[in-house]
């Protein structure tokens, strides 16, 4: 390619990256100020709720999770607690059975089929009008369920996504970096919700009307596809920041990397199945949100690669491009230093931020590549403490 073509590739890649991480949030802010906010008619009704807890070999946390669930500020006669065990091989099932006298129900899958298959089966057994989905390691605030379900008083609301918060331990570099990134994500969710619907959910804490639940493929990422199905049926998926849960972060950057590879792999394939939601003539602003927040975000590592390669090709064209190349190389050097220090057990937050940013983008690329090559995930073990 000639220099003009390389320059065009450089500016195009830079513009897309700038839009993904800066332009899209600014667009949401402008939209939230200029477009009428969609109010939510909250109510004090207390519908019957089924709390579905997914578990595979969660003996270390299951008793604590069930004590937490039984202590929630929601009428016990209106709350059904159902644990679906994906053929656990540790003491998970025995622990759940020991809570039988408290009304906790166990649904053991006959063979290990993955979280999504378990949820399909659990929904068939659930008696609640509203389904709340949770993980075994997610500790709910005592008002979480009440604050989730109050939004269902609005007939336009079909799903409500709560907020996961991560506990940070001493020298816990992975979780500190994840928290910084997560705060950015939560700001986007708040803006998206004000305009209509959030793109996707949170597997640790989200709720839907049972009548809107649609059978999922075992390879589907449930907390991503489920809320999208709700939007496709003409309902809203809200973000409720006052309904939150706590959990530990990933054990380390490597564990977090593997988790994000699985997530993007499954979500990328799900996006292809749900691609009809990208039609702006039918889904309006949500189509732009879906494209910007998810599809383009996952493609960011491709744009980063093109930006670097194009910058190398035109670096000698002017001092400006020489400076931009040096800036890129310095950024990636900091990320490499973050990787090295995390492996040596001496993390430094300043270099862990570029390391985490590069890590999640590399995970996106690997996840997409695996999906394109036909790799699927249905089962795995938790990467969190």
Compile the SSE list and pairings:
Blueprint: H1 3-34, E1 49-55, H2 59-70, E2 79-85, H3 92-97, E3 105-108, H4 115-125, E4 130-135, E5 139-140, H5 144-149, E6 157-167, H6 173-195, E7 206-209, H7 222-232, E8 236-248, H8 253-273, H9 280-283, H10 285-298, H11 300-314, H12 319-344, H13 349-372
Parallel strand pairs: 1-2, 1-4, 2-3, 6-8
Antiparallel strand pairs: 4-7, 5-8, 6-7
Helix pairs in contact: 1-6, 1-10, 1-11, 6-13, 8-13, 11-12, 12-13
Structure, described:
- By secondary structure, the protein is of the alpha/beta class.
- The protein has a domain at 49-250: Spore Coat Polysaccharide Biosynthesis Protein SpsA, Chain A (Alpha-Beta Complex).
- Helices cover 53% and strands 14% of the residues.
- Strands 3-2-1-4-7-6-8-5 form an 8-stranded mixed sheet, with helices on both faces.
- Helix 3 (92-97) links the parallel strand 2 (79-85) and strand 3.
- The mean pLDDT is 90.
Keywords:
alpha/beta; Spore Coat Polysaccharide Biosynthesis Protein SpsA, Chain A; 53% helix; single chain; 385 residues
Give me a quick take on this structure:
Helices cover 53% and strands 14% of the residues. With 385 residues, it is of the alpha/beta class.
Overall 3D shape? globular
Series of secondary-structure elements, N-terminal to C-terminal: HEHEHEHEEHEHEHEHHHHHH
Q: What profile does the largest beta sheet have? A: 8 strands, mixed
Number of helices: 13
Enter the CATH topology name of the domain at 49-250. Spore Coat Polysaccharide Biosynthesis Protein SpsA, Chain A
Mean pLDDT: 90
Share in helix: 40-55%
CATH top level assignment of the domain at 49-250? Alpha Beta
CATH superfamily of the domain at 49-250: Spore Coat Polysaccharide Biosynthesis Protein SpsA, Chain A
Beta fraction: 5-15%
The class by helix and strand makeup works out as alpha/beta
Record field, number of beta strands: 8
CATH architecture of the domain at 49-250: Alpha-Beta Complex
Question: pLDDT under 50 segments (min length 5)?
Answer: none
**Order of neighbouring strands in the sheet with most strands:** 3-2-1-4-7-6-8-5
Q: Give the radius of gyration.
A: 22 Å
Q: How many angstroms separate the termini?
A: 49 Å
């Amino acid at each position: 390619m000639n220099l003009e073509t390389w320059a065009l590739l450089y500016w195009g890649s830079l513009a897309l990256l700038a839009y993904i991480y800066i332009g899209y949030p600014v667009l949401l802010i402008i939209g939230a100020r200029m477009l009428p906010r969609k109010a939510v008619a909250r109510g004090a009704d207390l519908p019957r709720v089924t709390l579905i807890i997914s578990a595979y070999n969660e003996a270390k946390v299951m008793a604590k999770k069930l004590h937490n669930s039984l202590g929630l500020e929601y009428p016990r006669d209106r709350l059904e607690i159902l644990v679906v065990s994906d053929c656990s091989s540790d003491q998970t099932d025995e622990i759940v059975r020991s809570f039988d006298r408290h009304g906790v129900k166990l649904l053991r899958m006959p063979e290990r089929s993955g979280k999504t298959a378990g949820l399909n089966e659990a929904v068939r057994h659930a008696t609640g009008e509203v389904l709340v989905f949770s993980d075994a390691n997610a500790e709910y605030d005592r008002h979480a369920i009440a604050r989730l379900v109050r939004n269902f008083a609005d007939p336009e609301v079909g799903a409500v996504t709560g907020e996961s918060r991560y506990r940070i331990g001493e020298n816990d570099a992975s979780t500190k970096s994840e928290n910084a990134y997560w705060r950015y994500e939560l700001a986007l969710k708040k803006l998206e919700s004000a305009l209509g619907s959030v793109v996707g959910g949170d597997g640790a804490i989200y709720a839907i009307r049972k009548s809107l639940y649609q059978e999922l493929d075992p390879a589907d990422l449930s907390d991503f596809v489920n809320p999208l199905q709700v939007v496709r049926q003409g309902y809203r998926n809200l973000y409720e920041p006052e309904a939150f849960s706590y959990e530990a972060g990933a054990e380390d950057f490597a564990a977090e990397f593997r988790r994000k590879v699985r997530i993007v792999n499954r979500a990328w394939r799900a996006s292809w199945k749900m691609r009809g939601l990208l039609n702006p003539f039918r889904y309006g602003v949500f189509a732009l949100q879906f494209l910007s927040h998810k599809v383009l975000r996952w493609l960011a590592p491709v744009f980063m690669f093109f930006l670097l390669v194009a910058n190398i090709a035109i670096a000698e064209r002017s001092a400006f491009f020489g400076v931009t190349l040096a800036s890129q190389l310095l950024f990636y050097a900091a990320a490499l230093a973050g990787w090295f220090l995390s492996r040596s057990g001496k993390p430094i937050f300043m270099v862990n931020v570029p390391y985490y940013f590069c890590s999640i983008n590399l995970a996106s690329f690997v996840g997409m590549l695996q999906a394109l090559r036909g790799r699927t995930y249905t089962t795995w073990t938790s990467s969190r403490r």
